[in-house]
Known about the structure:
homopentamer; alpha+beta; Beta Polymerase, domain 2; 2 domains
Amino acid sequence: xxxxxxxxxxxxxxxxxxxxxxxxxxxxxxxxxxxxxxxxxxxxxxxxxxxxxxxxxxxxxxxxxxxxxxxxxxxxxxxxxxxxxxxxxxxxxxxxxxxxxxxxxxxxxxxxxxxxxxxxxxxxxxxxxxxxxxxxxxxxxxxxxxxxxxxxxxxxxxxxxxxxxxxxxxxxxxxxxxxxxxxxxxxxxxxxxxxxxxxxxxxxxxxxxxxxxxxxxxxxxxxxxxxxxxxxxxxxxxxxxxxxxxxxxxxxxxxxxxxxxxxxxxxxxxxxxxxxxxxxxxxxxxxxxxxxxxxxxxxxxxxxxxxxxxxxxxxxxxxxxxxxxxxxxxxxxxxxxxxxxxxxxxxxxxxxxxxxxxxxxxxxxxxxxxxxxxxxxxxxxxxxxxxxx
Amino acid sequence: xxxxxxxxxxxxxxxxxxxxxxxxxxxxxxxxxxxxxxxxxxxxxxxxxxxxxxxxxxxxxxxxxxxxxxxxxxxxxxxxxxxxxxxxxxxxxxxxxxxxxxxxxxxxxxxxxxxxxxxxxxxxxxxxxxxxxxxxxxxxxxxxxxxxxxxxxxxxxxxxxxxxxxxxxxxxxxxxxxxxxxxxxxxxxxxxxxxxxxxxxxxxxxxxxxxxxxxxxxxxxxxxxxxxxxxxxxxxxxxxxxxxxxxxxxxxxxxxxxxxxxxxxxxxxxxxxxxxxxxxxxxxxxxxxxxxxxxxxxxxxxxxxxxxxxxxxxxxxxxxxxxxxxxxxxxxxxxxxxxxxxxxxxxxxxxxxxxxxxxxxxxxxxxxxxxxxxxxxxxxxxxxxxxxx
Amino acid sequence: xxxxxxxxxxxxxxxxxxxxxxxxxxxxxxxxxxxxxxxxxxxxxxxxxxxxxxxxxxxxxxxxxxxxxxxxxxxxxxxxxxxxxxxxxxxxxxxxxxxxxxxxxxxxxxxxxxxxxxxxxxxxxxxxxxxxxxxxxxxxxxxxxxxxxxxxxxxxxxxxxxxxxxxxxxxxxxxxxxxxxxxxxxxxxxxxxxxxxxxxxxxxxxxxxxxxxxxxxxxxxxxxxxxxxxxxxxxxxxxxxxxxxxxxxxxxxxxxxxxxxxxxxxxxxxxxxxxxxxxxxxxxxxxxxxxxxxxxxxxxxxxxxxxxxxxxxxxxxxxxxxxxxxxxxxxxxxxxxxxxxxxxxxxxxxxxxxxxxxxxxxxxxxxxxxxxxxxxxxxxxxxxxxxxx
Amino acid sequence: xxxxxxxxxxxxxxxxxxxxxxxxxxxxxxxxxxxxxxxxxxxxxxxxxxxxxxxxxxxxxxxxxxxxxxxxxxxxxxxxxxxxxxxxxxxxxxxxxxxxxxxxxxxxxxxxxxxxxxxxxxxxxxxxxxxxxxxxxxxxxxxxxxxxxxxxxxxxxxxxxxxxxxxxxxxxxxxxxxxxxxxxxxxxxxxxxxxxxxxxxxxxxxxxxxxxxxxxxxxxxxxxxxxxxxxxxxxxxxxxxxxxxxxxxxxxxxxxxxxxxxxxxxxxxxxxxxxxxxxxxxxxxxxxxxxxxxxxxxxxxxxxxxxxxxxxxxxxxxxxxxxxxxxxxxxxxxxxxxxxxxxxxxxxxxxxxxxxxxxxxxxxxxxxxxxxxxxxxxxxxxxxxxxxx
Amino acid sequence: xxxxxxxxxxxxxxxxxxxxxxxxxxxxxxxxxxxxxxxxxxxxxxxxxxxxxxxxxxxxxxxxxxxxxxxxxxxxxxxxxxxxxxxxxxxxxxxxxxxxxxxxxxxxxxxxxxxxxxxxxxxxxxxxxxxxxxxxxxxxxxxxxxxxxxxxxxxxxxxxxxxxxxxxxxxxxxxxxxxxxxxxxxxxxxxxxxxxxxxxxxxxxxxxxxxxxxxxxxxxxxxxxxxxxxxxxxxxxxxxxxxxxxxxxxxxxxxxxxxxxxxxxxxxxxxxxxxxxxxxxxxxxxxxxxxxxxxxxxxxxxxxxxxxxxxxxxxxxxxxxxxxxxxxxxxxxxxxxxxxxxxxxxxxxxxxxxxxxxxxxxxxxxxxxxxxxxxxxxxxxxxxxxxxx
Lengths: 389, 389, 389, 389, 389
């Protein structure tokens, strides 16, 4: 159970918090987190340089000499490196705390000269993973922090930068920030696709194989969609703020792209809300399905019991030991020539009558389903909505 | 299952997306989509010309020479044609991406000189189909893109244009845009009518023939109403924005018409929300209906069991093999002259008593339903609300 | 079924729509609607004239010669008459379309010189009826359109006008408009009263006579309350707009009255929302009631089965045909002197023990209900909330 | 039933309305209401006079001669007295209608020179009672109308006024109005306390004695909380309006007190919403409880049936009358020496095996509950949240 | 029961209220509350003094001589001490009432020269405890009131103050206020963690050991989350007001920290809402689980009954006492040589057939669960969302 606990608390960001009452800006580094690796990519329209595994001091040297410098820090497992960077880039302690204390809501904050942007990325294999990505945007640089290394969507952005004549090479640092945020937002689509498929699978199973275990899976999906919701709504707010607020370093031509990115976020949220509504219908379907199944079980029981109980009664009637010799009134049937066949006939008639009764009630399957098909086909015959005159 | 998957993802626009991290404005044309067919309709109050199947270059020639030129592109299956048009009309890459990457939310966006309008049209045969229609409004032209060819509602607009002296011939391009949007909005009414009928059919079946399969149909309706909701609410926002924002090319006299179109959208949304509420009551009704049915089954079982079990017990009592000869206390009834008839009488009395008991409890049908009719007729006798004095 | 379909679609205004793509302002008159009857009432503080069944041309003559002229058109079944009126009063085509295409949301629209006001009136006999009432307010006239003739509440307004020295005779046309709107709004109160009674009746029946048919009635009420909601919320918006917006022809002294009318609408909505909440609890109550009933059925079954099954077993035990002569171990009880009474005693003890067990579990009625009464009386003994010191 | 009807309609204010279409400002006095009794209390910092049972004309004489005059009218059963007062204080007809037609929403309305304030007071004995209290605030007087006489909370305010040197004696009329409103708002707290206790009682009973009758009591509570909600939300709006709007006669020092009163209203609403949520969980709990109980019943039935049915089968097997003499294959067990003991043993083994099976399934009570206690104690062992370092 | 009552009413603040109608600002001290203990901590960048258990008069002496003075009052059980302090610090009576009458909503109020801030702290051992903390912020002092002594989070703040060179020593009184509020807000995280674990435990038990008692625990959690919600939402509002409103004594550099504190509150609320949603799914899961269990019980019953009832019938058939000598038609099987084995065979075949039927229906466990695993693994095989090209 403890493993699951940890996972949950990680999701909502409870485990890695400092004690209440401690000084603000305390960096609480998770020792199990990967150690930070610095990569620099400095480029202009016609030249580019890339280096990996450098020290913070090395990174400083690119600043001011290139149109755009992108310093990315992958892994947050070493407070010293992060604090060195904070000093070089003059980062406020509270912003730094937010970088390390992952599971912040997406937000934009202005510290003089620097824009601090936080976003939550998501990916899905068996489980849902969320990763905080933090950006500092300066006049000519983007400094990005990632919880883990190797965000594949960011590799594609790097590839675009490496391509000479790519638009991104012509643009400023704000366009780089946009490209990275766009990669984060677009990363939600495959995650949603995954949940779409899972919901669909569950929608079938909930009817055809309802068992207790399915509750766990429905619950898992609902919880994860809740988590995604918690990541995406602030993302939308954050992008809206980037789009509308007078933020230095962000040019009007980039705002057009940010608006597109904002639209994608709205699309993500739309789908998410649809999936949330679909998944919240699953439990209802499950309950109906169980009840329906119980109904079937009850019918089988009732039919068996109702048919055989009277028959057994008749049989036990003639099992009574009344002394037929003492009185001609005492079960004379037992001595009839046709007694036994007659009783068998009575039994068969009783059973037949009951079967007919249950069939008429529709409990024996069959007729109940046919009319539905008709109703559907009449739907199909409805007049076309906009047939030309 | 894969067929259904595809359909669902198409609805929410997940399948046709580019990879996260790729460059914005990438056109991802669905190769299975129909190839684009261009039609031009250029008209003024007293002259009109129509051509079909032309090339983008041909279309360019009408611009500037006619009061209104309508270039419609039906089918989005060829990126080259679309990019040629983008060049001619000076369309921003992001707008172009939105045209091709269907399943955008309805929206208005201003690119200098051009108004970009996206809307989702809907139609219903067996399934719900949504189609994105995109418009670019210039000073004297409308450029429209349709996913598929042959929107019948648009043919009616063409017919109105062909009629000389029609109001639409006197008006500018903004009125044409209004007419097309109005056709899109009004196309929702027959769709809603279809769902109204389906809900009504289900409302009957849910009570009279509740089975598991009905859950699928309720779910289908609820999902489609969700999809419609996702199409119509942004439509309302978009029309409101067209109505209120200072958008060039849109005149005040057309705004009066757009207000009417906006009212229609509100009407659509009103009905949609009513249908959503009705459909969300269906599962509840279904569950109640199943439970009620189970109740009936249980009553039948209980009546059978409760009547025959005591009778069987009496019969088996007299089936015991106590030695009546050893002791006069051992089942002397077996030797009585009236023994058998007496036992039959006891059995009949037991059965009769139980039947009376169950009838009094109202389990045998009958009396429970009559009072309701009275209560209804008293409703009818209520005094008229506004009888004249 | 078709009759019900028609009724439903009428409610939400789907059946009478024009085809998507047709020209705006097309009048689609329902041929089954009653033919229009014109009535004129022209009055001032000290004189009054009334005429009925006149032509549109006749109506024109009153305009400008009386302080207030009220032309009312009852019935919308003839497009010619309505169009003639439109010409006389210079009514915009779109407003005219809204008059004829009933089931508009309540709204105020300004067309130069004319205020166009739409409201939905409601009445209840067996079914809920809604009727659209449209008003055009000019400087010295009110032109009203009614779907059907003979709104009784309007007759009361006429009576007030006929009374000399009535306040309404002193006031302008805006006060007449207010009086008619007030009559429309107050007409909702008896409708709500009717639903209050129906809900109360259902609240009893849902517990005491739960059957499938009750689902239909609950659903009917919920749907009608939904419809009423759709009528009343826009009514409130409309009145608020009349109250706050700078609308010509509406004087400040009339605004005080409109504020009162607005308060009434809010009262209507308050009650409506209470009834909606009460009615949405009905299905829940019904489900609980069915489940409770099933519980009772199950208890009866279980008690019968659990008591008689062991007894039957004992009886059938002694019905076995073991050869008592072969072995003294084979059912010696059968040959005992007190065998039969002993077995009867065992049976009685078994039955008694089980009865005691079920009584202790509270399944046999009785004790379970008494404590509740106590708990209620303790409620009554609570100290009075605001007893004087 | 009629008694309950009346009560309900009174609550929502439906019964005492005028007919739709009648003139605004019509006073519809309930003849069963108590006749009005006038009390005057005129006071300043150092003198005070009190009179009861006076005529409206008497009341007029105090005006203008005292710093504060409080005229209270208890009972609304006589239109003449009320109209006389209206004339003396120059009250608008619509305000007067609102005074008499109780069940208005709380509100503040300005009529020139006079502030009209309506509030709903609540009290609870067996049933919930609401009473409308209306106030007119002038420069140096408060005129209050009460549905019934003897609001105990108001007596306490009188006592405070009677105390010389009390703060209230130093203040103006607006402070008196505040004191009365504060008494009204604080009167909700004991009502809520009463509902808190009722909900708690029901929470126990719903689990331990679920029966149909409990549905009525849950419903009663939910309805009353709905009614309270309808009273309190407008109260909050009203107080907010008194607090923020530029209302003459209300001084800034009194506004500080009104803010406190507003805070109390928010507190009332907070508790109310908590109780509403708790009470809406009651039906769910009830349903779960019934289902759980049915589960228990089913288990008892199943255990009895499953154990005895096989035993009975074995017994009836050996009750068959096969002729053991004809063939040694025909039930030779019947002639065995150990036949009967052997069969008894088989039966005991069968019963034992089934009991073991049901115990292992946890249907026989016992072990299922123990682990929960452990889980709770582990909760207790969690580390203290804020232990000092 | 009374103990629980008290606890509940304490939570919502009902028990400690004054009577409706009493004078505002009346201090109603709970005599059982701990007596107040005063502690003073006066500090500047380079000096610090601490004293405990002093009198209000002693406290006065520090004011004005130190950069920051923090007077904390722990325990509210003595009105005299509190009123003495009120006089020294010139506190408004209404603010004082709010300090003593705990269970106020969090709020900021400005009294001239003093900022009054109320917050609710929470802690969790077995039960949830909330404590009101009130602050008065002056130019150079913070006066804090605590319901109980020894808030551990505040001890940590004291430790930080005691540390020379700590940032808090350099800052003004507003930073101290921030530090204390931050401690209050961060105190919610361990509480939420506790509820996270409880919900998780319940999520398991609800499926594996559903019994009535679990309803109480779910209800307890839901109520406590409601209480937390009531505490935290106003906290957010309060912090937002501190952050945005022009409040004297609060500097811009502290506002940056308050923004961080506000973010934490939003985080708390986010998690709270997730937990509320999760806990509201618990009852649904419970109901499904019970129904599923009942389904299992019913299947067992049905299988037993359906198999043995026909067998018993066959057995009782041959227990009938027809006279085989009178007629060769009367049960000739009884005299067959292979009669008994033949009947046993028929019985075995019947039982086997029924078992096969039930297995095919999936009622005997087994195959129903295997396909799910497959479906999951297909999920895993989905293509990685952002694989590099």
